[in-house]
Amino acid sequence: MLLAALRVITTRNPVHAVLFLVLAFFSAAALWLLLRAEFLAIVLVLVYVGAVMVLFLFVVMMLDINVDKLRQGFWRHVPLGLGIAALIVLQMWLVLSQPGWQGMTEPGPGIAAVNNIEVLGRLTFTRYVFPLQIAGVILLVAIIAAIALTLRGRKDSKHQDPSSQVKVRREDRIRLVPMPSDAEGRQTKKS
């Protein structure tokens, strides 16, 4: 995960950086699985890799970002970034060097029979049902606002007007052109 995160900030191609970020998320999901938090691992893969990374990749490919301008101040911030990275690695080492870092060896009473997904489901739909509904409404408003802000009428696009299609009469759609039948056409050719 650390190698993938390092490659996110050091690679020159933005598409490769997004793909390395996907690898970092998969590695984090594997760590969640090792910690027996299956639901969080699945949510991490589905939400971040499945939705957010696809959006990032789409934006990066559509915008055609000039990477040279973004990299101009890169070396100026390297010492601060290395200091923060060393602090994070030190914290990870302190956690992992403890003998019981994986948690309790024996689950407490009542926990052994229930998995974390069931407990999360019960809490979500009982105690936290109203905050969940409020978050859903806020996300719905955000989606509608994003669509309204980015919706533009293109001049070259063709569209249908259902009201004008309903108002049309038979005389407007069909024009009868009188033509001689085949038998009448032969008689006029002979004469």
Task: Report what the structure shows.
The protein has ten helices and no strands. By secondary structure, it is mainly α. Among the domains are: 1-70, Four Helix Bundle (Hemerythrin (Met), subunit A) (Up-down Bundle), CATH 1.20.120; 115-146. Helix 1 runs antiparallel to helix 2 (14-34) and helix 2 packs antiparallel against helix 3. It is elongated. The protein starts with a helix and ends with a helix. The relative contact order is 0.05. The model has no long low-confidence stretch (mean pLDDT 80).
Question: What does this entry show, briefly?
Answer:
With 191 residues, the chain is mostly helical.
Summary tags:
191 residues, mainly alpha, Four Helix Bundle (Hemerythrin (Met), subunit A), 10 helices, 68% helix, elongated
Outline type: elongated
| Gap between N and C termini | 94 Å
β content, as a range?
A: under 5%
Number of helices: 10
CATH architecture heading of the domain at 1-70 = Up-down Bundle
Largest sheet: none
Contiguous uncertain segments of 5+ residues: none
CATH fold-type name of the domain at 1-70: Four Helix Bundle (Hemerythrin (Met), subunit A)
Number of strands: 0
| SSE sequence, one letter per element | HHHHHHHHHH
Indicate the structural class.
Answer: mainly alpha
Radius of gyration: 32 Å
Helical content class:
55-70%
How confident is the prediction overall: mean pLDDT?
80
> What is the CATH homology-level superfamily of the domain at 1-70?
NADH-ubiquinone/plastoquinone oxidoreductase chain 6, subunit NuoJ
CATH top-level class of the domain at 1-70: Mainly Alpha
